[in-house]
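BUG: 3D viewer hangs when loading the predicted structure for this chain

Environment: internal workstation, default settings.
Expected: structure renders.
Actual: progress bar stalls at 90%.

Input used:
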Amino acid sequence: MAYVPGLEHDLFVSYAHADDVAWVRALEEGLRERVRQRLGLDVSIWQDTRSLRFGQSWPDEIAHALTRTAALVAVLTPSYSTSVWCKRERDQFLEQFPGGQGLNVGSIHRLLKIIKTPWDNNEHLRFFESLQHIDFYRKSDRAAIELWPGTDEFRLKVAEAAESIAALLRAMRRQREKVYVASPATDCFEHWEALQAELRTQGFDAQPEGPRDSAFADQLMREEMRGAMLSVHLLGAEFDAFAAHQINLAAELGIPLLFWAAKEARTQADERQQKLLAALAQGRGPDGAELPAGFQNLDGNPRSMIQEVLAALKPRPREEPPAATGSPRVYLLCDPTSARDAAFARTLRSGIIEQEKAIEVDLPEDDAASATAARQRHGELLRACDGLLLYREAAPAEWFLSQLPSLLYGERLLRRPPMRSKAVLVDDPTQLAGQPETITVIPRTPNFSVHDLEPFLAPLRANPRPHALA
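Structure tokens produced before the viewer hung:
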């Protein structure tokens, strides 16, 4: 899969087959590794693994690859200058850009010249003379000496080329990443403008181009939403029917949803807005339909909201859920930012493992790179666990209430099989007044021990099986 969305390959390396293929392969592998280090994700480099270039006709596979690649890397040698195949590859790539339109991404060109061997009289400098190039040779008094793989000089030049390529691919990815920022009620309009401006500054395709209201047809808004990698909805204290309608439209299209509730929404929301916020917390849209899996609820100040949206858009390698071992797995959910709760949770984890032997226990991350990364890991642990134990003593009441939907509706929100056991461990059970009576509540008494968790642990021992995702 290519790093740049919508393409099949990130790089196509064009070279004369009369040249040293081993040198070209070393260049490709060096670029692959260095660009991956710069971007944090693998890149796709098209390779002629079936010796297509040695045929007599122009293979469709090569033509297709050239029209589905982000950048062409031309390895210039005297043989390249006379190669009919190299010219065909170059022409096929460039014909996508009539008049050169789209060939530049900002200040970066999508054709990069690697000078392996200079041409006579430095004529290679007159080949696409306006384009950047990187010399993979050094000059001596009598000749140009090529840089060979494995040398420090070669590695430095690979790093230089990788820097340019990574910048190009990053810019192209941003251009193709659409983010829909739904038009909010008037009390959030200033935050909407700030988020739109920051997304565009960062190079994202922020839609819509202007505020929308009920005068705009649903079909128009669906077209603006279609293909978005994220739909962001800003919610204040004021209920707005059109803002709610946009949530329904984005959910119908299956777009990942991110909701941000301003501080006023938590403390001053009108009755209808309170109902909307409650529904979203339970994974249901304004129309009562289930939201697409993976939605996120944010709070915090407007500046942190913008940073969290950017973090949610940042590409990251896919993290695997905990490996299935055949042992039941417990997710001991606490607030990792509360030192007292986190310390007790670590002690409790050790106690459960020591007593039960066959039960594994996971804790939330306390060193996640961002709140978005922490939420993603939280979702992975919810999907993988057989039992969920929610613990609170010193954590803020707001944190505790924000986690209850995971306990009450986690299976439905994540579309996963039912958990085998769920419980709440609290020092004061009265804080659960008004919650469904189906919740198993275990008081943390002054003489608390792991044996007090028997109502929670017993179902996990019965009929042992691999955890939820095994």
